[in-house]
Design a protein that fits this description.
The chain has a single domain (3-144), classed as Conserved hypothetical protein from pyrococcus furiosus pfu- 392566-001, ParB domain (Alpha-Beta Complex), CATH 3.90.1530. It is 38% helix and 23% strand. It is built from four helices and six strands. It has helices at residues 3-32, 41-48, 88-100, 123-131; strands spanning 39-40, 53-62, 66-69, 108-113, 116-121, 136-144. The chain has a six-stranded mixed β-sheet with strand order 1-3-5-4-6-2. Helix 1 crosses helix 3 (88-100) and helix 3 packs across helix 4.
Length: 158
Amino acid sequence: MFPDQYNFQLAINDFQSARLKAGIQEVLARITGKSTQLLSYEEVAEKLKLRSRTERGIQHIPLNAIVGSVGRYTDFTRTFLPRSDKDRERWSRVKAAFVGSNASLPPIEAYKVGEAYFVVDGNHRVSIARREGLLSIEGRVIEFKTDIPLTPTCSLMI
C-alpha cells in the first residue's frame, strides 16, 4: 500500500470514529437539552444587524472560539465533528493531505463577530484541526462590529 493510500485509509478510520463520537454527542444532547448545533452566521448577522466589516488579515484563531459557519452550520456539531456520512470522502481526503504535509493546513476564511468566529471556507480543516488536538488554526479574518457581546459560549438566544 502506498503512503498516500495508507494515510487515506487511516483518515477514513478517523472519520468513522469522529462520526461515532458525533452520534454520542447527539444522544447526550437530547438527554441534557444542550444543543450540539453550530450557529448560523446568517441568523446571527440578521439578529445583530451586522453591517460594518474590517479586513484583519491572517491571524491565529482559537479553535474553541469557532462557533458557527456560513452556510454549512448543519454539517458539523458544535465541536466540529461531522454529522453525516456524506462527508466521509472529502473529510478523509483533507485529513490524509494534512498528515501527508507534516501537519500543516492552509488558512481558513472566517468572520469574527465579538469574540466568536464563523467559518466561511475551511469547515473540514477546522474539524480535522480540532480532531488533532490543535488549539488554533490560521485564518484570514474579516471582523464585523457589534454592540452586543457575542462570546464563544453564546447560544442562539441573542
